[in-house]
């Protein structure tokens, strides 16, 4: 019983990390600041900024009379003008979001089984192991999405927007945004959660330390 209580405390930590990771993944996917473009707009005395995300772009103009004017435009999921790296990132983040949600659900079921002392009676099937695998897959998908975008930053890779966007194809300068960092943290939390689930799996602990 002491062994199971100790394991349950670690599993709750793993579940908490997985939940935070899923929230951060969903949030980063919705935010536009994956890439920050610096533009030279002749209509304004200061260069303009553009935030390019997975599902749209926001333009921020800076002038003497107005410090920040934002105009956001969104592209659809089936937009053929979206470059390959953003298209791949869209799919990878969607897969990570769904798989992470399923993995978190498996962790909830495993915790319920653990507290009712049913998990130790069935060593052949363990939802904690399934949750760990799903979280590891979600972490991998997010890391790949981050890498796809990060590699496009130094090359100043452009995006062919719709004419209504009124946004140039290539930036004068480009850097990674905070959404990319948030996604990276989400991937690390998913991976850490998977490690916790595997390291403190009750059925594995019982096999290593049999109750006599």
Number of strands: 5
Instruction: Give the low-pLDDT segments.
Output: 205-212
Task: Look at the structure and give the mean pLDDT.
Answer: 77
Approximately what portion of the residues adopt beta-strand conformation? Answer: 5-15%
> At CATH's second level, what is the architecture of the domain at 2-31 and 76-158 and 177-207?
Up-down Bundle
Radius of gyration: 22 Å
Largest sheet features: 5 strands, antiparallel
Distance between the termini: 12 Å
Q: How would you write the strand order of the largest sheet?
A: 4-3-2-1-5
Query: How many distinct helices?
Result: 5
Quaternary arrangement of the chains shown?
A: single chain
What's a quick, concise take on this entry?
This protein is α+β, with helices and mostly antiparallel strands and 212 residues long.
Tags for this model:
about 210 residues, alpha+beta, 5 helices, elongated, disordered C terminus
Give structural notes.
There is one protein chain. The protein is α+β, with helices and mostly antiparallel strands. The chain has a domain at 2-31 and 76-158 and 177-207: Butyryl-CoA Dehydrogenase, subunit A, domain 3 (Up-down Bundle), CATH 1.20.140. 54% of the residues lie in helices and 12% in strands. The protein has a five-stranded antiparallel sheet with strand order 4-3-2-1-5. A hairpin with a 7-residue loop joins strand 3 (56-61) and strand 4. It is elongated, with a radius of gyration of 22 Å. Residues 205-212 have low confidence and may be disordered.
